[in-house]
Write a structure and sequence with these properties.
By secondary structure, the protein is α/β, with parallel strands linked by helices. The chain folds into two domains: about 5-75 and about 180-250 and about 345-415, FAD/NAD(P)-binding domain (3-Layer(bba) Sandwich); about 110-180 and about 255-340, D-Amino Acid Oxidase, subunit A, domain 2 (D-Amino Acid Oxidase, Chain A, domain 2, 2-Layer Sandwich), CATH 3.30.9.10. About 30% of the residues lie in helices and about 25% in strands. An eight-stranded mixed β-sheet has the order 5-6-4-14-15-16-13-17. It has a six-stranded mixed β-sheet with strand order 8-2-1-12-19-18. It has a three-stranded antiparallel β-sheet with strand order 9-10-11, with no helix packed on it. Strand 10 (about 215-220) and strand 11 form a beta hairpin. Helix 2 packs parallel to helix 6 (about 180-195) and helix 3 crosses helix 9 (about 370-385). The longest helix is centred in the N-terminal third of the chain and has 19 residues, at about 90-105. It binds flavin-adenine dinucleotide. The site of flavin-adenine dinucleotide has 38 residues, from helix 2 and strand 13. Flavin-adenine dinucleotide binds near residues 78 and 366.
């Protein structure tokens, strides 16, 4: 099914009768060449690139709920390439480049909006740190511009620059950073994977693994046993629980991250603004809602919903930075389960069980990683070797000490 201006017009005139479901309601077969567990962004992208780049034609994605019910449909849609250390830098830079052409690639309007990301700073020391990060981004081939207070004020006049807690001194502007419509990404990858023959099987929870002599041979699910020699796991905040069923543990903690949206307002927030000191960030959706969020809960949880203490913390930060927001009415808040690693960077690697591959540890930044992650994970599953983009995302780095701690936070999961 192809989208074009002509097709949209023609379907409008005949009541949309020619549109087809985006993907088949596939039933599980007995056996596949590869199974991907998790129909989130990473799982669906992996299935798509497995079919497209590696020619595997018997692939299943097993999703315990429905496509988009996890973090891929719960995030605040921000994409950026603002990383500094080798390993992260080339990976996220490649991912942002993929976002720029992904709508054409998948023939789906993903509403990629490079509106510019502003990361605020509040002291001379913090300005120097951002200047260094900006230079690293420029060397990598991405874009960055340091703005002083007056330069920033011209772009975002509505901030409280003189606040006594964290007076705003300026910002690092990343012009190509922005937003992408999150559920469109899930639907687009699902549709494109289905078109290449991938079975997308919803309401199918993986409950266990069949392992013979240290090698995985299949999975147990709520819809029966399914065999496959290669199994990729992309279940985000459920990673720790699922690997326990394969008999090992991961250095991953699950924490809740919340987000909020207000009623629709006329456009006035034209950028993505990140206020790190206050644990607050905001953008405005195309429907006009202010979309914002803050920090994760400081204790592990699988609750997948919001709670009032963190709502209060986020609202306080919002009021400090842009008091005008106090006039807006919040419509909804929600939560997602984050897969937090001790160094804040992901894992794309083989597991201790042969044939079982891991894609996890996205912390609260895995949406923007989806294209590069899908490409890299598909490569690993198909060839058994790490993709050059993801070669440092090894599981054993927590044992060897080769950690990728972007901000020097230290080994505390919830602080990344
Ligand atoms: C509030 C919030 C804001 C965020 N904001 C951003 C942002 O602005 N930018 C950014 O880059 N990132 C952001 N993130 C993080 C990003 O959304 C995640 O890192 C990323 O979506 C995780 O990967 P995924 O899409 O594959 O996960 P998910 O969509 O969660 O996919 C995992 C899937 O696995 C399924 N599953 C779990 N267990 C099983 C099982 N046993 N059997 C079968 N299926 C199973 C789940 O149902 C789920 O659908 C945010 C997250 C949240 C919650």
């Amino acid at each position: 099914m192809h989208f074009s201006g002509y097709r949209v017009l023609a379907e409008a005139l005949r009541g949309g009768k020619g549109w087809r479901p985006f993907w088949r309601k596939a039933a599980p077969a007995d056996e596949y060449d590869a199974i991907i567990i998790g129909g989130g962004g990473h799982g669906l992208a992996t299935a798509y690139y497995l079919a497209r780049e590696h020619g595997l034609n018997r692939i299943a994605v097993l999703e315990k709920g429905w496509v988009g019910s996890g973090n891929v449909g719960r995030n605040t849609t921000i994409v950026r390439a603002t990383y500094m250390i080798p390993g992260n830098q080339e990976f996220y830079s490649a991912s942002l480049k993929m976002w720029e052409t992904l709508a054409q690639d998948l023939n789906f309007n993903l509403m990629y909006s490079p509106r510019g990301l502003l990361q605020l700073f509040h002291s001379d020391g913090q300005r120097d740190a951002f200047a260094r990060r900006g230079n690293a981004m420029l060397i990598q081939g991405d874009d960055a511009q340091l703005l002083d207070r007056e330069g920033l004020r011209r772009l975002v006049p509505y901030l409280d620059y003189e606040q006594s807690r964290y007076p705003v001194h300026g910002a690092l502007l990343h012009p190509r950073g922005g937003t992408v419509r999150h559920d469109a990404v899930a639907w687009a990858y699902a549709r494109a994977a289905d078109a290449r023959g991938v079975d997308i099987i919803e309401n199918c929870e993986v409950t266990g693994f069949d392992i013979t002599q240290g090698r995985v041979t299949g999975v147990q699910t709520t819809r029966g046993a399914i065999r496959a020699p290669r199994i990729g796991m992309a279940v985000a905040g459920r990673s720790g629980q699922l690997v326990a069923r394969a008999g090992f543990r991961l250095p991953v903690e699950s924490h809740i991250l919340q987000a909020f949206v207000t009623e629709g307002l006329k456009p006035f927030v034209h950028h993505v603004i990140s206020y790190g000191m206050g644990h607050f960030y905001i953008s405005q959706s195309d429907k006009g809602g202010l979309v914002f969020g803050g920090d994760i809960d400081f204790y592990p949880s699988y609750a997948q919903r919001g709670n009032l203490p963190m709502a209060e913390h986020v609202m306080e930060a919002a009021m400090t930075l842009m008091p005008a927001i106090g006039r807006a009415r919040v419509l909804r808040n929600w939560g997602g389960i984050m897969d937090m690693t001790p160094d804040g960077s992901p894992i794309i690697d083989q597991s201790p069980v042969a044939g079982l591959y891991l894609n996890t540890g996205w912390n609260y930044g895995g949406f923007k990683a989806i294209p590069a992650s899908g490409l890299s994970f598909a490569h690993l599953i198909a060839t058994g070797a790490p993709h050059p983009l993801a070669r440092r995302y090894r599981l054993d780095r927590f044992a060897t000490g080769a950690v990728l701690d972007e901000e020097g936070t230290g080994a505390t999961h919830h602080l990344h």
